[in-house]
Amino acid sequence: xxSDQRGITLLExxxxxxxxxxxxxxxxxxxxxxxxxxxKEEKRFGVQQNxxxxxxxxxxxxxxxxxIGTSIPSGSVYYTIxxxxxxxxxxxxxxxxxxxxxxxVGKYITGLSFSNTxxxxxxxxxxxVSGNNGSFTNDYLISSQVLLLNISSLSSFEDSTIYFTR
Length: 166
Hints:
Blueprint: H1 10-62, E1 67-69, E2 77-84, E3 89-96, E4 99-107, E5 109-119, E6 122-131, E7 140-147, E8 158-159, E9 162-165
Antiparallel strand pairs: 1-9, 2-3, 2-9, 3-4, 5-6, 5-8, 6-7
Protein name: Prepilin-type N-terminal cleavage/methylation domain-containing protein
InterPro entries: N_methyl_site
Keywords: Membrane, Transmembrane, Transmembrane helix
């Protein structure tokens, strides 16, 4: 008598199913880890981009200032650059004859400081901007200096809010 042995046994099927299940599970774990890594890097990129943009805006806003300091200047039109601690945003306020408008120019900004400096014997503004969206251990930090083109002398100051005119 001839026996027909072309099929697979239950044991072989179980082993094959176990190996495939393990492979699918391994793929899923790697996929989830990859997605989480991409999301974390997207958040980090967003914080870095917002912090860099804030530093660039500060530079362009104050470069042509005609006066700058930590107290309200005389005159009917002046500007401030400040950190809104409630929303972690960099804000530029425009005061024009008693009317105030505010512009949010940077999100995730956690620190802001200004001080006067000298750049090649000319007045300048030194500033530091830090950013974090709460999911990182360390803040992203940018320190920069801006040559103040329209100011001949500058008194000493160090603060987190500046007032200026153009």
